């Protein structure tokens, strides 16, 4: 099978949404957002554009529906998600766990189990998920496993090597932004994530899952 090259004008530009799940509201620096933006930059090398949304900057309510009402701003974020072919969750590690903001996002995505298209497929089918994790303690593999499993449960597809992470020394003080060049570790993982995720998203865009 022959696939079009990046230079082929018939290759569609895909859309990505990076949900940054830092606990810090803007404009505070966020290592999770930094890594999320690095993933978005890497995706741009594969004709994927998009944006980063820092979830805590929005009034997202706790719940498991698509709209919790009373000013809930999740529906606005959800519109961006539904318009994208790629979803990246960028989260810090706290106590070895995904952040509370990340868990809230996953709870809101539970509502997608009741949302289907005209052919009976979940609206998340055909969308590809990836995760970026930062922290100053161990737990990146655990966080990655939790987040990717949850996203797969609600209909997202996961490519090979769909995660990138950086963790500093346990109980350390160094943030990802201050850790210096990482081209052979986190950088290489980010490139692999972007290449495989974009490839799979483009395949699914051209060949959707069958009707339910």
Automatic annotation (TrEMBL):
InterPro entries xrefs: Flavoprotein-like_sf, FMN_Rdtase-like_dom
Limits of the NADPH-dependent FMN reductase-like domain: 16-161
Pfam families, sorted: FMN_red
GO molecular function, a single term: oxidoreductase activity
Top-rank taxon: Bacteria
SUPFAM superfamilies assigned to the protein according to its UniProt record, in alphabetical order: Flavoproteins
Protein name (database record): Multimeric flavodoxin WrbA
Protein species of origin: Micromonospora sediminicola
């Amino acid at each position: 099978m022959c696939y079009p090259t990046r230079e082929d004008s018939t290759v569609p530009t895909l859309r990505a949404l990076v949900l940054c799940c830092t606990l810090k509201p803007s404009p505070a620096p966020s290592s999770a957002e930094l890594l999320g933006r690095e993933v978005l930059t890497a995706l741009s090398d594969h004709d994927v554009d998009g944006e980063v949304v820092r979830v805590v900057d929005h009034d997202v309510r706790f719940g498991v529906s698509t709209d919790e009402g009373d000013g809930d701003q999740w529906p606005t974020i959800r519109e961006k998600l539904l318009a994208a072919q790629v979803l990246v969750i960028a989260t810090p590690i706290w106590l070895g766990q995904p952040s509370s903001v990340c868990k809230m996002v996953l709870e809101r995505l539970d509502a997608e189990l009741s949302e289907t298209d005209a052919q009976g497929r979940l609206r998340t089918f055909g969308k590809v998920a990836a995760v970026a994790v930062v922290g100053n303690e161990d737990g990146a593999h655990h966080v990655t496993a939790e987040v990717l499993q949850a996203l797969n449960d609600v209909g997202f597809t996961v490519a090979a090597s769909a995660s990138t992470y950086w963790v500093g020394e346990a109980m350390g003080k160094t943030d990802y932004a201050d850790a210096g060049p990482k081209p052979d570790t986190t950088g290489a993982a980010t490139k692999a994530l972007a290449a495989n995720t974009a490839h799979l998203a483009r395949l699914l865009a051209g060949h959707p899952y069958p009707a339910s």
